[in-house]
TrEMBL record:
The keyword Glycoprotein does not apply. The keyword Signal applies. Gene3D superfamilies: Glucose Permease (Domain IIA). This is M23ase beta-sheet core domain-containing protein. Residues 1-21 form the signal peptide. Residues 241-321 form the M23ase beta-sheet core domain.
């Protein structure tokens, strides 16, 4: 079992692990130019970013009720839909509609055999990954930002001309739950959570080891996520309690993933969990135990993905959008994110103790006072 009691002497090992610790999704595609949308008569405001982003507290979806009414043969993959929607940040209604538009045969009520179920599971993951990759390509507001969400959606379709079929499916199934054209109330600007709002996602009084900030998908931007573990064991090692980093309402996304959302729009995702002990819509206070990070690989990756060992994948979101950890205060430590995912170079990424002003590098034990 790998343990790091003297982290300063284990930098090479730590970097090797951290650089590979987590890969949720890998699907790098490019948006189609606006001209390809205009050529088939698509309104540039077909969808907004609010339509695409997953905000389970504001726009809940009873996935089992929906599938029971419209896609009953999908019931065996209901957890996968919610899991990958949470991990990708894409609303499950968007994922389902896009997948059905691209593969109309999936709407036929035919029982899934083992092979067709495995294919559908992969299709769900890849559709969510594609939409997420496209959505997060653009990091800064521009004059074209109003068109970006529509470009994202159309770029995820087989051809731009499929947009009419997509819209028809969505309106038939979801227009009463989340009508298209939802507008985000807050501007997309980098604002850190309020001081004192968040702590580290483990019990107060303990010290764990974080690695470098990285994207929710494991690569790219924004650097919204960080992996933490008590001592970074190998699979089968001892693991420890995960706690809510702030007050809020719980959304259980799968057996190994949940989100906590506060009414102020800030939320946190917790992935690779085991023994989740909170329920949907339950209010939890900061430092409430929500489960443990999983010791077994099959539990930690309950719907797939990859990981080198037991840890918690922790992400922050604002209004449903994964948001950079830059300047976020977790307990008394403020985050400097670095240049790219898993950047562990202490010249570029570090934690600042807001009480003393001291700078601490990643892969050091960090207390949660």
């Amino acid at each position: 079992m790998l343990r790091l009691p003297h982290l300063a002497t284990a930098c090479a090992i730590a970097f090797s692990i951290s650089s590979q610790a987590h890969t949720l999704m890998a699907n790098h595609v490019q948006t189609r130019p606006m001209t390809s949308l205009e050529n088939v008569g698509i309104n540039s405001q077909l969808v907004t970013e609010e339509d695409l982003t997953f905000r389970p507290r504001q726009y809940p979806l009873d996935i089992n009720a929906f599938l029971g009414s419209h896609l009953p043969h999908w019931q065996p993959v209901s957890e996968a839909v919610m899991h990958w929607s949470g991990a990708s940040g894409i609303d499950p209604r968007i994922v389902i509609t896009t997948l059905i538009t691209n593969e109309p045969a999936l709407a036929q009520n035919i029982a899934l055999d083992r092979i067709s179920k495995l294919k559908l599971l992969e299709d769900i993951k890849q559709t969510a990954a594609t939409l997420s990759s496209l959505l997060y390509q653009s990091q800064k507001p521009t004059t074209q930002m109003a068109h970006h969400a529509t470009q994202v959606l159309v770029s995820a379709l087989n051809t731009p001309s499929d947009w009419q079929a997509w819209k028809a499916h969505y309106q038939a199934w979801f227009s009463d739950q989340k009508p298209l054209g939802q507008q985000r109330h807050s501007l997309r600007t980098q604002v850190a959570p309020p001081t004192g709002f968040m702590q580290w996602p483990w019990r107060q009084g303990y010290a764990w080891v974080p690695n470098g900030p990285h994207a929710h998908s494991g690569s790219g931007y924004p650097l919204s996520s960080i992996d933490v573990s008590y001592d970074w064991p190998r699979w089968g090692g001892t693991t420890y309690s995960v706690t809510a980093a702030h007050d809020g309402y719980v959304t259980v996304l799968s057996r190994c993933q949940l989100r906590v959302t506060h009414d102020n729009g800030w939320a946190t995702n917790y992935y690779h969990l085991d023994g989740i002990q909170v329920n949907n819509n339950q209010w939890v206070s900061k430092n409430t135990k929500i489960g443990t990070y999983a010791s077994q690989r099959t539990v930690a990756l309950c719907q797939g993905g990859s990981s080198t060992g037991p840890h918690l994948h922790f992400s922050i979101l604002k209004d449903g959008r994964f948001t950079s950890l830059q300047d976020t205060e977790l307990g008394r430590f403020q985050v400097q994110t670095g240049r790219y995912s898993y950047d562990d170079n202490c010249q570029y990424t570090w934690l600042t103790d807001t009480q003393t002003g001291d700078k601490t590098c990643m892969w050091r034990r960090i207390s949660n006072p």
